[in-house]
Amino acid sequence: MASVRSAVRALPRKTAAGYQSSYYPSIPRPRSLSSFSSLSLSSSSHRSSPLSFSPSHAQKRQLATMSTQAAHPALLIPGPIEFDDAVLQSMSHFSESHVGPGFVATFGETLSMLRQLFQTTDPASQPFILSGSGTLGWDLVSANLIEPGEDALVLSTGYFGDSFADCLTTYGAKPTKLEGPIGGRPQFPEIEKALSEKKYKLVTVTHVDTSTGVVSDLKGLVQAVKKVSPETLVIADGVCSVACEEIAFDDWGLDGVITASQKAIGCPAGLSISMFSGRAMETFKNRKSPPASYFASMKNWTPIMQNYEAKKPSYFATPSPQLVHALNTALKQILARPLSERFQKHKEVSDKIKKAITDLGLKIVATKPEDQSHAMTAIYLPEGVQIADVLPKLGSKGVIFAGGLHKAIATKYIRFGHMGVSVTDPNRNDVDKALDALKTSLAECGYKA
């Protein structure tokens, strides 16, 4: 019987991409059944298999609960996050032409699914999927939607708001920063006052700033901007919010949301993802000077994206087919259930985490409940406990958190990311494991709750 189990474990895995060449690990870890829905082990399909028998139903069931990922600590930083097996398996797709019919169909479907994720049905809205990180989204905005010498109002809640302002400056725009206190955000009256005093081409806001865990009220912001300066575009950096915080693109009247693949969307890093309104695209078309970037030019990329979504081959620069396949799988998983359920689950888990942290006597960087992100939590360390002490202790217990990032408080806090499958997969215990590890690690550092 042991030899049969060993043989079954060595069966090549069938995925949408073909057969995996690697064998199952000898000590597999349980994961979600949904990750393996395409598993097929019939003898007729395994022509390259060294075995000639078909595993029993029980054996198939056992294999279906196994993960192909090597044992590893739970990655609970504010991105990259843990990935579902099926998403990673999608990246093993055989090499194919980026203008071939198979990939064109996948890319086109992926662009269309982005419309559902952002909740836009306006045909004038334009999605983009570019090879690059979330930072490329700043360049896309700065190079195309504002021109040298024009003013931008940057609402900053931490490191990433400040960096967006730096990017705008690089392209010749004139950003004015409106900063919230550490752990807070600019308030609507001061935003309205700033908009009434100067004409701004656009307002930028970091929906969730991963340096502080502060979330901004996008719906209320758009309403405030439209009341005072309706011609001003509202652009949100949603790198750490898309797919875990609600974003109703059309209903709220947003003009742009930029994000990346490796956070709540749950796909490996390497894709810059964005959605722009018809109004934003008209602003780009009416600019007086050419885009200030070649690779990040909407002039170069818009027809490519439109052709791909229409299932027509097109070329400007080579995309990453394997990452697009992974994104396609991740989006299908996300959209298989109502988005409202996903947002609610992230809220419930976030509330649980924040209660556990306050029960430990710890303070959260984002001071007000309404300013606290559901994607991550920034946690002040107790007096006398150092980052260099607590992070290794967490790591020894199979949990990885991130250190501080905000320059004013960087040595005083740590960051706990809780997004994607670590939250939504009922077969994972990442969050409970992290909370237990945090409590134990702090005790080992001498902290008494």
General description of the model:
Keywords: Aminotransferase, Pyridoxal phosphate, Transferase. The radius of gyration is 23 Å and the shape is globular. The longest helix has 21 residues, at about 340-360. Helix 4 crosses helix 11, helix 4 (about 100-120) packs across helix 12 and helix 5 packs parallel to helix 6. The chain has three domains: about 1-70, no CATH class; about 75-80 and about 340-445, Aspartate Aminotransferase, domain 1 (Alpha-Beta Complex); about 100-335, Type I PLP-dependent aspartate aminotransferase-like (Major domain) (Aspartate Aminotransferase, domain 2), CATH 3.40.640.10. It is built from 16 helices and 16 strands. It has helices at about 1-10, 55-65, 85-90, 100-120, 135-145, 160-170, 190-195, 220-230, 250, 280-285, 300-310, 320-335, 340-360, 385-395, 420-425, 430-445, and strands at about 15, 20, 75, 125-130, 150-155, 175-180, 200-205, 210, 215, 235, 255-260, 270-275, 375-380, 400, 400-405, 415. It has a seven-stranded mixed sheet with strand order 4-12-11-10-7-5-6, with helices on both faces. The model is unreliable at about 1-65 (pLDDT under 50).
Largest sheet: 7 strands, mixed
CATH superfamily of the largest domain: Type I PLP-dependent aspartate aminotransferase-like (Major domain)
Q: For the record, give the distance between the C-alpha atoms at the N and C termini, rounded to a whole number.
A: 51 Å
Mean pLDDT: 88
The CATH architecture designation of the largest domain is: 3-Layer(aba) Sandwich
Percent strand equals: 5-15%
